[in-house]
Amino acid sequence: MPDNQEQFKELLKKNGLKVTTQRIAILEVLSSRPGEHLTAEEIYDLVREKYQDIGLATVYRTIQMLSELDLIDKLNLDDGYVRYEISNKHHDEGCHHHHHLICLDCGNIYTFQDDLLETLETRIGEALGFEVKDHEVKLYGHCKNCRLQNI
Amino acid sequence: MPDNQEQFKELLKKNGLKVTTQRIAILEVLSSRPGEHLTAEEIYDLVREKYQDIGLATVYRTIQMLSELDLIDKLNLDDGYVRYEISNKHHDEGCHHHHHLICLDCGNIYTFQDDLLETLETRIGEALGFEVKDHEVKLYGHCKNCRLQNI
DNA sequence: TTGGGTGCAAAGGCTTTGCATGTGA
DNA sequence: TCACATGCAAAGCCTTTGCACCCAA
Q: A7 to chain B, minimum CA–CA distance in Å?
């Protein structure tokens, strides 16, 4: 995504940050795997396939920066790793994070989006005076494949 | 809650587990603080107020056991600690976990329950063939108090 | 009696940090 | 040039594990 890359460079400059090979490489890896939920270590390994001389610390520092710039989303599956995926916020304007369905059997993660949740948030706001800015929704259960196999 | 405690003892025995002072003490602490979200360290400190000779490892081991017995719920706020609270599952039969509203300003955690989410889950199930067993919903935003103060 | 439970300390494992060196602007 | 970025290694920090001792059942 050369277009995306240009936007990224602009965003870095606008925030007084330098454009480095490492930062580009890390965003590239994440951009090329939308919907995957990568750990820092996985990102590190993927980046090194093309760019050997990167340190794990740089990956952690860059991830943190990308997260603050809202370019990537965090996902915590409580397995000891924090995972990251490229955000879709800037593609669908005004749309929040999608939600995750996590299969308890195979561990696969499915994503979905639903406007009903926006309705829910509005209702909460009215009832409790709480202004919702962001949300994280995880549904645990059994996916279609696993359910069919377990019959 | 002496009644609750008896149920707990029965549950332990039914699962081939022993009734120990430590286990009782830890459940007591959690039971006496419904709605609070305690870290292992906090539970450890609270237990030691009444029962000095407990080890942090025992707290971790007991927490894990209580979680497997569905007596407590996990909550991860991504601040490096896993938090626990007494579950309300056994009081309201058939009801899932409640949800959390987390204020980005003051850090307070508010809870709410809403049937709309059950509707959402049913819809997901029908659309994707996913059978939802459990969920974790966190809404981040600004609470009433903080919003009023920031005017 | 006896096998599970506990306390202590050490080890694990992900993530962050310090510091000297490198590099984009 | 020079402040920010990077790599490496060490440190941090929450949590788990090993092991000898203890205690419910």
A: 28
Assess whether the region B1-95 and the region B96-151 belong to the same CATH fold. Answer: no
Note if the pTM is more than 0.85: yes
Domain layout of chain A by residue ranges: 1-95, 96-151
Residue ranges of alpha helices (H) inside chain A are: 2-14, 21-31, 40-50, 56-68, 116-128, 144-149
- Residue A16 half-sphere exposure toward CB, CA atoms < 13 A: 0
pLDDT at A82: 96
Q: Is the CB of B64 under 7 A from strand C?
A: no
Q: What is the CATH number of domain A1-95?
A: 1.10.10.10
CB contact under 8 A, B144 and A130: yes
User: Would you call A116 and B119 a contact, using CB atoms and an 8 Å cutoff?
Assistant: yes
Sign of dihedral through CA atoms A47, A35, A99, B94? negative
Domain spanning A96-151: CATH 1.10.101.10: no
Q: How far apart are CA B85 and CA B29, in angstroms?
A: 10
DSSP symbol at B21: H
- State the sign of the Cα–Cα–Cα–Cα dihedral B49, B13, B74, B32: negative
- Asked if B42 contacts B29 with a C-beta cutoff of 8 angstroms, the reply is no
Asked if A5 and A28 touch (Cβ cutoff 8 Å), the reply is yes
Tens of pLDDT, residues B52-79: 999 999 999 999 999 999 999 999 998 8
- Which residues is A23 bridged to in the sheet? none
Note the residue count of chain A. 151
